[in-house]
């Protein structure tokens, strides 16, 4: 009987296929089992959604426990790039492989060698972000494009501060008014959309110290309007004038708008 499931993703179909093939292989009456059955799975999760990859070992163990005809013990060997599976395996049961190319006079070939696990914390039940942060899995935990843009912005601000401190007479093209304003807008937008709080805060601080005049200009305008507001309030109280409410509202709106711009500058 051929059964077809509708509306399943490619990864979900692959998940069912892997488990079904394992189950059918072990239920085969022609197979003779010894004391131990070795299951060798080569990247079974290569098409899985991360959530299915995270749950795979648990579901696999449940599936094996349901096979009444197999009384043997299981030894499961899985090759994977997934940190999600690693979180279900004690670090003592992990073998890290490092690939390389071995050259000789005649040819070259791909080689694999075991990598030292020193410095890798216990993996069982460990946070997947912690596992990912190990250099064996990822060189960085943020995307390469965003990393490059952040580094470019940091480099620009450092170079600009260096230029300001040196008081150079010849202004570099990248620091001339039009280019500078464009770059400041770009950096401010970048800071606004960054999701990692620590990086966001550090860049905000760096922006404020790199372009302090911009922040001071907003602060000066806010203080000036607040002084005007206080002055008008005194006049209203002294002369009991109610008709200037609209003026006060306009001033309040102007102050709020400037504060919002100042906050955006910090964000």
UniProtKB/TrEMBL annotation:
Coiled coil stretches, renumbered: 215-261
Mitochondrion found in the keyword field: no
Pfam family of the protein (one): AAA_21
GO molecular function, one term: ATP binding
Keyword list, A-Z: Coiled coil
Residue stretches making up the ATPase AAA-type core domain: 4-86
PANTHER family: ATP/GTP PHOSPHATASE (PTHR43581), EXCINUCLEASE ATPASE SUBUNIT (PTHR43581:SF2)
Region forming the signal peptide: none
Gene3D superfamilies found in the cross-reference section: P-loop containing nucleotide triphosphate hydrolases (3.40.50.300)
Superkingdom of origin: Bacteria
Protein's UniProt keywords contain Iron: no
Protein name: ATPase AAA-type core domain-containing protein
InterPro entries given in the database record: ATPase_AAA_core, Bact_Antivir_Def_Nuclease, P-loop_NTPase
